C-alpha cells in the first residue's frame, strides 16, 4: 500500500512526539511492506509566526493532496493574548471545518500498568474500555449568529438533521464493532437541539436492533464517568458536551499522556492527534510522552487505511513496553527510572 | 426572629427528606428562639397531577409571600413522556426564572467518615472543600430563539453584561469569606459569551485585589476536578457549564447524598434544595438519606436569614452523627447497620 500523509508538528512538545510517531510509522511500513510518503507543513502558533495565519493555504493544499493528517499539538503562552483570529486553536477549528472532520473518536482504555497514576480507586478504573464519539463540526462551536459587544454576547447552537444523523450512524456502526452498547448523551430536558438529537437516535436505533441503546443527560454522565466508567462502551454526543466529557474521561485511567484521537469524515480521510496539549512547560527537553501520538498513528492505520493488523501491532508494542516497566517522566512511579522520549520510542521500535 | 417558609416537597423521596429537614428546622427554632411559619405547596410531578401545571399560580403566590423556599426534589418516570411544558423540571426552571434566583451555590466538602464511598483515592478526595457558583437564570437555558423542526434545531446562549456582573460579584464576595481563591470557568477559546465573561472577571478583579483569581477552560476544569479537586476554593461559571461541573463535583467525595444547594437572588431571598434527585426507585420506603436536605436548611439559615450560629450547629450535628458511624443505606459500609430516614434524623435531633 502507498499513502501520502501530511504531518503537522505544531507547537510545544508537538514536534517531539510527532518525530517519535513518524519513526514508528516508518518501521511499520518496512515490516508490512507499505510506503508512507510524508510531507510537513505548519499549523497553530508555528504557522502564525511564519505566515501570520494559524492555518495557511499552503497547509490546506498539502492536506488536500494527502490521504491523512498527523498532528502534534497547538498552542502556547506566546500566542495567548493574540486576537481570536490569530490564535493557534483557530487553526485546529478551521482544519476540522474545512475538511468536514465531523466524527471525533476518543478511546479511553485502562492500561493495567498505569492504574497507579489514576486518581480513581483501582477497582473503579480497571475495567474502563470506552469510546467517546464527539460531533466535531457543528453546535455552539460554529453556529451563527455569534457576537460580542460591551453590553452583551451571544452564541448559537445549531444542528441540522443531517449533521446529527451522520454522527449517530457512525456511533452505531462503531458500537456494533465493539461490545454493542451505545449511550447517547444530551440535555433533552432543556435544549431543543438535544430533543432533535434524541429523536434521531430513537429513529436510527431501529436499524441497529443488535445495539443496546440508552439516552442519558450530560450532567448525569459527568457523574457516572467517575462513579462507574466501566459501564460504558460507545458514548455519542454533540460538540461541546463531547469536549467536556472526553477531557473528563481522559483522566480516569491515569493515562492522559497515552490517549490518541481521530477526527474523520465519511470517506475515511482523517486527522490524527494526541488528546494531550502542547505542554509548553516541558517542550524541547526531550522528556515528553510520545505514546498518545504513536497510538494516534495506529488509529490512522486502522480508520483511514483499513490496516487493522498493523494498528494492532502498534498497540501490542506500546502495551508491552508499559508492561515491561518502561515509562516517560509523566508516568514513572517513584521506584522506576524514567526514560526520555527517544529512549522510550526505541523500546517501542524494538518491540515491533 | 420570625420567618415564613414555603415548603415544596415535590416528588419521589422529596416529601420524606423534606419532613426530616423540617423537624430539624423546628428544633433549631426552639433552641435558638426563632419562629418558622411553614406553608406547603405543590411543584413538579405532584403539581402536574393536581393542577396540570408543574408550577401552579397558587405555589408562586405562596412563595412570593414568604422569606425562603425549601424544596425536596422533582421528577419521576410517571411524567417522563409528557410534553416539555408538562414536565416536572419545567417547574424548577420556572421558579428559578420567576424569582430571579440567579446564583446557585453548591458547596462540596469531604466528610472524612464518608471517603470510603468515594470513587477517588482517599489522598485525592480528602482535602476537597470547594463551592461552585453557577449562574442559574441565563445562557442556553433561557436564550431565544430556540426552535425544533424536523429539519433542524437551534438554541441560543445569551448573556447581558449585568447578568454576568452580578454573578461574578457574588462569587468574589464568597471567595473573600472563604479562602480567597476564585477560578472562573469559561470556553473563551471558542465562545463569544465566554470572552465577555472573561473580560468582566478581569474588570471586577480590580475591586478584589485580596482574591487570587484565575481563568480556566471548562474542559480543563472537568479534568482537574478529578485529578486535583483540593486545589479549588470558589469556582464561578455560566449556567450549563455549572450544571455539568457541579454534578461532576458532587460525586468526588462519595457524598452525593449529603450535598445541599442554595439558589438565591440579590436580596437574599432563596430556594434551598438537595443536589440529589427524586430517586423514585427508593421513594416511600423510608430509607432515603435526608442529610442533603437538612444541610440545605442550614444554608437557608445562613444565606437567607443570616443565622450563622444556627447553620453551624446543624452542620456540626450532621458531622457528629457521621463520625459516630450512623449512616442511611446509601452510605452504609458493609459492616455497619444502616438506619432508616427517621432513625437517622433522630440522631441529628438528639445531637442538637
Ligand atoms: C483547542 C480547543 C478549541 C479544542 C476544542 O474545544 O475542541 C480542544 O479542547 C479539543 O478538544 O480538541
Ligand atoms: C432538572 C434540570 C433542568 C436541572 C438543570 O439542568 O438545571 C438540574 O439538572 C439541576 O442541576 O438542578
From TrEMBL, chains A, B:
<feature type="binding site">
    <location>
        <position position="96"/>
    </location>
    <ligand>
        <name>substrate</name>
    </ligand>
</feature>
<feature type="binding site">
    <location>
        <position position="243"/>
    </location>
    <ligand>
        <name>Mg(2+)</name>
    </ligand>
</feature>
<feature type="binding site">
    <location>
        <position position="106"/>
    </location>
    <ligand>
        <name>substrate</name>
    </ligand>
</feature>
<dbReference type="InterPro" id="IPR024084">
    <property type="entry name" value="IsoPropMal-DH-like_dom"/>
</dbReference>
<dbReference type="InterPro" id="IPR019818">
    <property type="entry name" value="IsoCit/isopropylmalate_DH_CS"/>
</dbReference>
<protein>
    <recommendedName>
        <fullName>3-isopropylmalate dehydrogenase</fullName>
        <ecNumber>1.1.1.85</ecNumber>
    </recommendedName>
</protein>
<keyword id="KW-0464">Manganese</keyword>
<feature type="site" description="Important for catalysis">
    <location>
        <position position="187"/>
    </location>
</feature>
<dbReference type="InterPro" id="IPR004429">
    <property type="entry name" value="Isopropylmalate_DH"/>
</dbReference>
<comment type="function">
    <text>Catalyzes the oxidation of 3-carboxy-2-hydroxy-4-methylpentanoate (3-isopropylmalate) to 3-carboxy-4-methyl-2-oxopentanoate. The product decarboxylates to 4-methyl-2 oxopentanoate.</text>
</comment>
<feature type="binding site">
    <location>
        <position position="247"/>
    </location>
    <ligand>
        <name>Mg(2+)</name>
    </ligand>
</feature>
<dbReference type="Pfam" id="PF00180">
    <property type="entry name" value="Iso_dh"/>
</dbReference>
<comment type="pathway">
    <text>Amino-acid biosynthesis; L-leucine biosynthesis; L-leucine from 3-methyl-2-oxobutanoate: step 3/4.</text>
</comment>
<keyword id="KW-0432">Leucine biosynthesis</keyword>
<keyword id="KW-0028">Amino-acid biosynthesis</keyword>
<comment type="similarity">
    <text>Belongs to the isocitrate and isopropylmalate dehydrogenases family. LeuB type 1 subfamily.</text>
</comment>
<feature type="binding site">
    <location>
        <position position="219"/>
    </location>
    <ligand>
        <name>Mg(2+)</name>
    </ligand>
</feature>
<dbReference type="GO" id="GO:0003862">
    <property type="term" value="F:3-isopropylmalate dehydrogenase activity"/>
</dbReference>
<comment type="subunit">
    <text>Homodimer.</text>
</comment>
<keyword id="KW-0460">Magnesium</keyword>
<feature type="binding site">
    <location>
        <position position="134"/>
    </location>
    <ligand>
        <name>substrate</name>
    </ligand>
</feature>
<feature type="site" description="Important for catalysis">
    <location>
        <position position="141"/>
    </location>
</feature>
<feature type="binding site">
    <location>
        <begin position="76"/>
        <end position="89"/>
    </location>
    <ligand>
        <name>NAD(+)</name>
    </ligand>
</feature>
<keyword id="KW-0560">Oxidoreductase</keyword>
<keyword id="KW-0963">Cytoplasm</keyword>
<keyword id="KW-0520">NAD</keyword>
<keyword id="KW-0479">Metal-binding</keyword>
<keyword id="KW-0100">Branched-chain amino acid biosynthesis</keyword>
<feature type="binding site">
    <location>
        <position position="219"/>
    </location>
    <ligand>
        <name>substrate</name>
    </ligand>
</feature>
<feature type="domain" description="Isopropylmalate dehydrogenase-like">
    <location>
        <begin position="4"/>
        <end position="348"/>
    </location>
</feature>
Amino acid at each position: 500500500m502507498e499513502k501520502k500523509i501530511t504531518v503537522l508538528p505544531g507547537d510545544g512538545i508537538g514536534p517531539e512526539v510527532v518525530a517519535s510517531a513518524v519513526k514508528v510509522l516508518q518501521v511499520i511500513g518496512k515490516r508490512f511492506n507499505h510506503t508512507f510518503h510524508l510531507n510537513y507543513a505548519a499549523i497553530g502558533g508555528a504557522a502564525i509566526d511564519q505566515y501570520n495565519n494559524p492555518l495557511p493555504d499552503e497547509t490546506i493544499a498539502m492536506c488536500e493532496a494527502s490521504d491523512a493528517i498527523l498532528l502534534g499539538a497547538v498552542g502556547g503562552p506566546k500566542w495567548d493574548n493574540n486576537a481570536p483570529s490569530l490564535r493557534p486553536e483557530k487553526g485546529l477549528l478551521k482544519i476540522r471545518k474545512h475538511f468536514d472532520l465531523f466524527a471525533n473518536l476518543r478511546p479511553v482504555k485502562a492500561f493495567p500498568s498505569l492504574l497507579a497514576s489514576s486518581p480513581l480507586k483501582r477497582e473503579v478504573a480497571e475495567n474502563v474500555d470506552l469510546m467517546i464519539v464527539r460531533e466535531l463540526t457543528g453546535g455552539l462551536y460554529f453556529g451563527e449568529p455569534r457576537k460580542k459587544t460591551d453590553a452583551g454576547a451571544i452564541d448559537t447552537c445549531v444542528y441540522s438533521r443531517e449533521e446529527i444523523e451522520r454522527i449517530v450512524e457512525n456511533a452505531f456502526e462503531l458500537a456494533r464493532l465493539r461490545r454493542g452498547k451505545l449511550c447517547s448523551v444530551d440535555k433533552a430536558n432543556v435544549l431543543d437541539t438535544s430533543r432533535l438529537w434524541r429523536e434521531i437516535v430513537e429513529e436510527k436505533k431501529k436499524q441497529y436492533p443488535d445495539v443496546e441503546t440508552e439516552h442519558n443527560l450530560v450532567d448525569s454522565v459527568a457523574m457516572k464517568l467517575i462513579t462507574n466508567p466501566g459501564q460504558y462502551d460507545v458514548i455519542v454526543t454533540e460538540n461541546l458536551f463531547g469536549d467536556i466529557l472526553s477531557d473528563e474521561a481522559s483522566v480516569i485511567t491515569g493515562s492522559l499522556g497515552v490517549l490518541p484521537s481521530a477526527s474523520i469524515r465519511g470517506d475515511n480521510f482523517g486527522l490524527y492527534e494526541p488528546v494531550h496539549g502542547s505542554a509548553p512547560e516541558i517542550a524541547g527537553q526531550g522528556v515528553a510522552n510520545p505514546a498518545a501520538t504513536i497510538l494516534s498513528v495506529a488509529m490512522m492505520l486502522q480508520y483511514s487505511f483499513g490496516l487493522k493488523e498493523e494498528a494492532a501491532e502498534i498497540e501490542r508494542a506500546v502495551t508491552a513496553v508499559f508492561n515491561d516497566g518502561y515509562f516517560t517522566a509523566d508516568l514513572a512511579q517513584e521506584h522506576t527510572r524514567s526514560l526520555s522520549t527517544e529512549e522510550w520510542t526505541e523500546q517501542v521500535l524494538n518491540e515491533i
